[in-house]
């Protein structure tokens, strides 16, 4: 059958007809029933979902793939089985369970959300979008996911997988990050989410994007919506969605100081705001240029900690990528010859006794490099 397909414009109000919506829902839910993955936070067929598990999983899945989240989710739920357990925990304990997963603001927001649920909602995860949006760290997507998956509310969602599926399905031929395109995608999500099985439908769209309608090498021959796909009809699947326009990451240089005294190394806690807030690290100079010298770093140690160090020696370097920065970490070693550590400026630890200190990924790598040395 030959069809004439036109790309919809970002300002189009209702690009999806009622009959087309019914077909999409029916085919997608049938596919999901057959191909859905068994995930620890996902309720089995006929079983009620656990709203707390949905809350935790959605926090972890933000900007992180399912395969990475699996082990972290199980470990986190073992440590904090209920929302009250999480609310009663210390932030450092929460960060320790999260370390390695990255984007640590998610952990602090999840912790704060648990406390808000206890204080303001009687220990029950809110079952509606407005109340969910008032929880720390919960945005429009997360609120829609929790409301639909945990409570069966017909709330729309839009994440990267959903945006890709809808962009191809309706041939949205504009950069995916523009306000008008996002408005169109949210409009589609609202129109398509059914009143019956809305949580399954939302998960089905995400599942389709993760398993079939992938960014690279999509399996169009296995797609239950192939006959409805406008991009496939005109052989433009590889061109849609149109990539977002991102600024190039800022290149910066940080210097990690492995400051040693009698086999123990100095660790400090990061500030309460900014990147990796409240986590621990080997002292890291972020205000020095790439041209930092052994002398300038030795002076930095004395100025910051009141310790006199022998001449620092560079022992290696590595690169770490964040969303907005490409950080080149330069690792230095310096042993202390005299001086007393200023109060509340750090702790001395052996490298095999760090379990109670949540460290960001670059610091784990630095510790491993020191051990190898």
Give the % helix.
40-55%
Count of discrete alpha- or pi-helical segments spanning 4 or more residues: 14
Low-confidence stretches: 1-14
* Tally of DSSP β-strands: 8
Indicate the proportion of strand residues. 5-15%
Please name the CATH topology of the largest domain: Endonuclease III, domain 1
How many angstroms separate the termini? 66 Å
Description of the molecule:
Helix content is 42%, strand content 14%. The protein folds into 2 domains: 18-239, Hypothetical protein, domain 2 (Endonuclease III, domain 1); 250-372, Nucleoside Triphosphate Pyrophosphohydrolase (Alpha-Beta Complex). The termini are far apart. The chain is α+β, with helices and mostly antiparallel strands and 373 residues long.
Task: Summarize it.
It contains 14 helices and eight strands. It has 373 residues and is of the alpha+beta class.
What is the element layout, followed by pairings?
Elements (H helix, E strand, L loop, with lengths): L17 H18 L15 H11 L4 H14 L3 H6 L2 H8 L6 H17 L7 H5 L6 H12 L8 H10 L9 H14 L5 H14 L18 H4 L16 E12 L2 E6 L10 E2 L2 E2 L8 H12 L1 E3 L3 E9 L3 E15 L7 E3 L11 H12 L1
Helix pairs in contact: 1-11, 2-3, 2-8, 8-11, 9-10, 9-11
């Amino acid at each position: 059958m030959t069809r004439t397909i036109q790309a919809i414009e970002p300002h189009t109000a209702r690009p999806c007809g009622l009959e087309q919506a019914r077909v999409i829902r029916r085919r997608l839910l049938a596919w999901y029933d057959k191909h859905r993955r068994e995930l620890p936070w996902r309720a089995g067929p006929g079983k009620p979902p656990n709203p707390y598990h949905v809350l935790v999983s959605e926090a972890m899945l933000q900007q992180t793939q399912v395969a990475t989240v699996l082990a972290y989710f199980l470990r986190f739920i073992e440590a904090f089985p209920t929302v009250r357990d999480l609310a009663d925990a210390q932030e450092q304990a929460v960060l320790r369970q999260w370390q390695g997963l990255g984007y640590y603001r998610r952990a602090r927001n999840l912790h704060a959300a648990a406390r808000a649920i206890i204080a303001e909602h009687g220990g029950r995860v809110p079952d509606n979008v407005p109340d969910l949006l008032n929880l720390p760290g919960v945005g429009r997507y997360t609120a829609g996911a929790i409301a639909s998956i945990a409570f069966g509310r017909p709330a729309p969602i839009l994440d990267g997988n959903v945006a890709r599926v809808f962009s191809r399905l309706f041939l949205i031929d504009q950069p995916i990050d523009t306000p008008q395109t996002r408005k169109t995608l949210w409009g589609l999500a609202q129109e398509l989410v059914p009143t019956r099985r809305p949580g399954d439908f939302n998960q089905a769209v995400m599942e389709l994007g993760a398993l079939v309608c992938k960014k690279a090498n999509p399996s169009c021959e296995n797609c239950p919506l192939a006959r409805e796909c406008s991009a496939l009809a005109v052989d433009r699947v590889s061109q849609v969605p149109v990539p977002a326009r991102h600024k190039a990451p800022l290149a910066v240089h940080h210097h990690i100081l492995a400051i040693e005294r009698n086999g123990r190394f100095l660790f400090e806690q990061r500030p309460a705001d900014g990147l990796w807030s409240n986590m621990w690290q080997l002292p890291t100079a972020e205000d020095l240029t790439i041209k930092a010298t052994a002398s300038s770093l030795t002076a930095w140690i004395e100025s910051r900690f009141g310790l006199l160090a022998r001449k620092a020696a560079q022992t290696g370097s590595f690169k770490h990528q964040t969303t907005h920065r490409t950080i080149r970490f330069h690792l230095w070693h310096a042993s202390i010859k005299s001086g007393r550590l200023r109060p509340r400026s750090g702790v001395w630890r052996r490298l095999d006794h760090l379990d109670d200190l949540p460290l960001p990924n670059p610091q784990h790598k630095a510790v491993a490099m020191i051990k190898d040395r």
